[in-house]
Amino acid sequence: MAKTKNGKNKRLSTLIFAESILIAYVCYAAFFMVKLADVFAPSFAAQHIFPLIIFTLFIVLSQLAVGLYEPKLRETFRGIIRRIFVAQGLAFFAMAVFTELFLTHVLIHSYYLVVCILMTILSCSLFRFFVIRFGALGLAQTRIVILGAGERASVIENRMRRASDRKGFELIGFIPIPGDNIELGVKKEPILHVNIDDSFKEFIAENDIDEIVIAADQRRGTLPIEVLFDCRLQGTQITDLLDFMERETGQILVNLMYPSWLIYSGGFNSQNYVRQISDYTLNFCLASLVLFFVWPFMLLTALAIYLDDGRKTGASIFYKQIRVGKDGENFGIYKFRSMGVDAEKNGAQWASKNDARVTRIGGFIRKYRLDELPQLYNVFRGDMSFVGPRPERPEFVEQLNKEVPFYNQRHNVKPGLAGWAQLNYPYGASVKDAMEKLKFDLYYVKHQSFLLDILVLIRTVEVVLFGKGQ
């Protein structure tokens, strides 16, 4: 236990030291940024070294005050950004007062503090992003145990087998409890035979466990509520399996979801009128910008389709299809035609990988997502957003609503050109695939935000540039 705590303290000390160096450099660089904006601003000199040290100290202490150096901080990246903003606000106030009282004899430009704070917010946010994203310094890792070793707990074993899936935590083991379906349970993970009584608290303390994940097959009458309550009071995080998987994998396990979790779970914010207006304005501007750059590719794509088979068959280069949009309302989606003219002579069919109905040009434009470009028109009309669940056909939606639980909830937001599910799940053409994609779609519906949209768009650019589309 002492060894583990010493390791954590060392990692935190390394974080504080690294951020202190970063902040000091930013405070130093701010002098030159101000100088670029105003040639009459004072240049960095020896008299500025003491203020630079004080400013760095204020910022680090402010970040300490808002919990950014808390060993057991379990916060989303958005939450960390909010804390960074609050910390910089506190630091700005302290620095302004200190400068006014004690540094009146030092020449500091009036814009310096503002530039310094803005640069610090940006640099600390980027630094924390890479620390969390790549598990640098081991700060993102928490030590966890799974309470349960049956069928429900086996989801972790089956879906998080790779080391890259577990970079955010260190799994100590699974603890079987009464009611677990052992036959369909955990097979290859460490099983901990620990009594769930008062001694369990000692086990948690001795092994420095940060989090207990509840993954019991049967909860009623089997969970040690009083023991878990005591552990929670001592600072150990208690997390439901659904919340744990959502946090670590970016998906919601629809097949394990129960209505009460959905009701009490955070997120699923409704889109109010102001947000709808701002979303449309942003999507309109983004669609205009994209259209400005891609219209030559659209012309070339249209010409290629015409020369490939449009000239012989007289078929249109475009393809209009009815899809289901927000609140279940149907709309017409527009795409460049990538299949033959008789592709659906036998009725609606799932598109599949290496689909024989796809033309020679169709295979290329689907790979690089060029067939989706006419949907910019749908964005202009307000039928779609740039980011959201991909719209599905009414025939399939009717079937999936019957066979996939909570499927209709993906229609709570506008469909999009790019989606979280498309980035995280390979091409699918079945009810089972629809279930898997829904796990990511519901995650997006629950966590929709500007930052998540930016992440999806950035990763979609990678898909387009490197031909990873389906």
Automatic annotation (TrEMBL):
Q: How does it sit in the membrane?
A: Multi-pass membrane protein
Main subcellular localisation: membrane
Task: Give all residue intervals belonging to the Bacterial sugar transferase domain.
Answer: 282-465
Looking at the UniProt entry, the stretches that span the membrane are 12-37, 49-68, 80-99, 111-131, 284-307
- One Pfam family cited in the UniProt record for this chain: Bac_transf
Top-rank taxon: Bacteria
GO CC annotation: membrane
Q: Name one GO molecular function term.
A: phosphotransferase activity, for other substituted phosphate groups
Database matches in PANTHER family: COLANIC BIOSYNTHESIS UDP-GLUCOSE LIPID CARRIER TRANSFERASE, UNDECAPRENYL-PHOSPHATE N-ACETYLGALACTOSAMINYL 1-PHOSPHATE TRANSFERASE-RELATED
Family per record:
Belongs to the bacterial sugar transferase family.
Q: What is this protein called?
A: TIGR03013 family PEP-CTERM/XrtA system glycosyltransferase
| The organism of origin for this protein | Opacimonas viscosa
